[in-house]
User: Fold this.
Amino acid sequence: MRALGIVGATIGMPIAALLMAVIAHLAVGFLLGGGGTFLQSWAVVCYALLVGVLELVVKLPAMLKQGTPEVFFGPAILLERTDPPSFLFQFLKEFDLFTFWKIGLIALGLAVVHRLRMKTVLVTLLGSWLLWALGSATVTTVLRG
Assistant:
């Protein structure tokens, strides 16, 4: 089972970065008319996701202390965890400090690569992320009951 987790993480992260780059490139490259290439968008996403290394370093002590891999650095920390988790909890857990840091870095990089205004790119990415957060919270709430 442990080997499955290692293989999943090894393969899963590049695939997740690829999917994020596809969505970001479609949103910024096509919808906003940016001039960058897909490979440039993918590079921006991959570099921004390196914040996840620092995120792990910061969250690891809390994970070990609490005995759970789910540690939150956002408004979800103020809510009590219920079983099954509420929609509000599922939604607010997406509002993480490190998530916003990554989104900001991706927006900055894509704005430079695609020669667009940072504000326009940031609003587009935040809108896409908000749709993801709502969808994720809805699906998780429905599936967990």
